[in-house]
Amino acid sequence: MPRAPMLSGVVLGVVLLAGCQQSAAPDPGRAAPPAPLASSPSAAASVPTPYVEPGVVDGAPRDNTAYRRPGELSAEGEKAATAQAERMTPVVQRLWRAGDIDPQAVREELLKLGYRPDELKVQPMYARWKDNGNVTPPGALIGLTVGEDACVTGHVQKNNAEVRASGRFMDTGCVTPPIGH
């Protein structure tokens, strides 16, 4: 492309853009435009944020796994949940050793311990990313509501099984939440 037409195109673009920055005479019936934002780092840093985690002085988030932390449980709740975890452990270990880790089979065996169906949740393991797609591994996640603030949380899968007393999780109740990104 010859330089003269390209140069004239650039000049025309600059002229048009420069015209956009000129303001018309003020209209008494129209509100004034907002003041431009300050572009200096000190101006941005002086704007307060609505929330800062305790112990964080600069407002930057440090942990996005709070949803995976169980809530507090009372001494009574911990005692009751520990007793239920001890009742449940031999059943879960037996199922694991036998390789019977299907969620429905796990639920049926745990209900034989006398738990109400509405207080016991057994579900498939969470899907995981593997080889360009989601894969749900074999096994079951277990959550038992115990009293006002306690849970028995656990899982049984091909390579291990675990049951323990816990507090409730923010989003998932008594079932351990999935791992985030």
The number of helical segments is: 4
Proportion of residues in β-strands: 15-25%
- Uncertain segments are none
- How far is the first residue's CA from the last residue's CA? 49 Å
Structural class: alpha+beta
Topology:
Layout: H1 3-20, H2 41-45, H3 75-98, H4 103-111, E1 120-124, E2 128-130, E3 133-135, E4 139-146, E5 150-157, E6 161-167
Antiparallel strand pairs: 1-4, 2-3, 4-5, 5-6
Report what the structure shows.
- The structure is a single chain.
- The chain has helices at residues 3-20, 41-45, 75-98, 103-111; strands spanning 120-124, 128-130, 133-135, 139-146, 150-157, 161-167.
- By secondary structure, it is α+β, with helices and mostly antiparallel strands.
- It has a domain at 66-167.
- The strands form two sheets. A four-stranded antiparallel sheet has the order 1-4-5-6, covered by helices on one side. The protein has a two-stranded antiparallel ribbon with strand order 2-3.
- The longest helix is centred in the middle third of the chain and has 24 residues, at 75-98.
Descriptive labels:
4 helices; 181 residues; four-stranded antiparallel sheet; 19% strand; alpha+beta; single chain; flat; two-stranded antiparallel sheet; 6 strands
Quick summary:
This protein is an alpha+beta fold and 181 residues long. It has 4 helices and 6 strands.
